[in-house]
Amino acid sequence: MALEKFNCIPRFEPGIPNLSAVQWMHKIDQMAETNGWNQVTTIAHMQSRLTGLAKKWYDNLPKYDYSWGEWKQNILKGFPDNRYFAVALRTMLARKKEDNENWSQYYFDKIELVRACELPEKHGVSCIIDGIPSEIIQTAARAGHYENPESLFASFLSTLTNLLHVERREPVNYRNKIPERDHLRNKEDRSAHPYQRYKSKCYNCREEGHLANACTKPKKECTKCKRLGHISANCKKSENVSCKTIGTHDKCYYITCEINGQKFLGYVDTGCGGVIVRTDVIDTLKVKYSQTDKIIEGYNNSVTQILGTVTVLLMVDCAEANVKVIIVENSIQTVLIGQEFI
């Protein structure tokens, strides 16, 4: 078989990062075992992949009648591995995903740096995630609890779409609870805000125009959940609906919610201005939505493209409302419940 067909063996040239002589010869040993090469074939493939200084070293050897074991000893003597772990570690940690590269390019470059440090697989997963600039994607990646870098790439990173050519429009910051004070003075500016404030609504009689403390109708309080607006016979509070803190983030909570009658796991964020859902949630609901090319800004000024919007019936605990939800890619939390509902 022609040697050209075995170019899967990488070139060996001293000075190429992340490929020491030891690593290179280990790759050749793996190929030899996989393909059943004898010593002669193995040596021939090794010689065909020498380049640069390694090729000059080879050309100046006094003889070439060595066994494969002798060749490996000679290569190690000629090109010892003088890299220091601390240097390799700093280089690896400094490698971040660039805006102009896709996820595959980032992963395969980063994994070589990780392997050069000879870290355990779980630590390798952590280092790859650490190089992702978006905190949203970092959070989603950590939630997968991947055991090794290969599963992280196959199940998560390879599914992400790169928004490298999204036109940069003026971002809409939904994390601001209210517009700036100057905007509040201008009714036109206030009405132009994408999420207009609700009219006053009474939780006792469910009518708009006043609050519960000013309601003139008889007080309707549930003896089960102690909330206004219904009696215990009509109480929808479920014992299975719970809220728990995640990690050390005391202000972030997961909670069971219902969208159009279907249950999902919601993520309550009081600093988010809207209600955000992923495309897989919309696929499950089987609802049509209006497409848009707007973007939102948040999470340390990261930018996310809005795929569309649709109005749904959202129920959390005993509270429910028709809200317009923002649809984003699957790298975001499943259901992000913000101020539009709260």
Polypeptide structure, described:
There is one protein chain. This protein is α+β, with helices and mostly antiparallel strands. It has helices at 21-35, 39-48, 53-59, 68-78, 85-94, 103-116, 121-130, 135-143, 149-155, 181-184, 187-192, 279-285; strands spanning 172-173, 243-246, 249-259, 262-268, 275-278, 290-291, 295-298, 302-305, 308-316, 319-328, 335-337. Strand 7 (295-298) and strand 8 form a beta hairpin. Residues 1-5, 162-172, 174-198 and 238-251 have low confidence and may be disordered. It comes from Rhamnusium bicolor. Keywords: Metal-binding, Zinc, Zinc-finger.
**Spatial arrangement of strands, main beta sheet:** 3-4-11-5-10-9
Radius of gyration: 30 Å
Find the count of extended strands (DSSP E, 2+ residues): 11
Give helix and strand order, one letter per element, not per position: HHHHHHHHHEHHEEEEHEEEEEE
Mean of the pLDDT scores?
76
Low-confidence stretches: 1-5, 162-172, 174-198, 238-251
Distance between the termini: 69 Å
How are the SSEs placed, and which strands pair?
Layout lengths: L20 H15 L3 H10 L4 H7 L8 H11 L6 H10 L8 H14 L4 H10 L4 H9 L5 H7 L16 E2 L7 H4 L2 H6 L50 E4 L2 E11 L2 E7 L6 E4 H7 L4 E2 L3 E4 L3 E4 L2 E9 L2 E10 L6 E3 L5
Parallel strand pairs: 1-7, 4-11, 5-10
Antiparallel strand pairs: 2-3, 3-4, 3-9, 5-11, 6-9, 7-8, 9-10
List keywords for this structure.
about 350 residues, disordered N terminus, 12 helices, zinc, about 30% helix, 11 strands, alpha+beta, metal-binding, three-stranded mixed β-sheet, six-stranded mixed barrel, zinc-finger
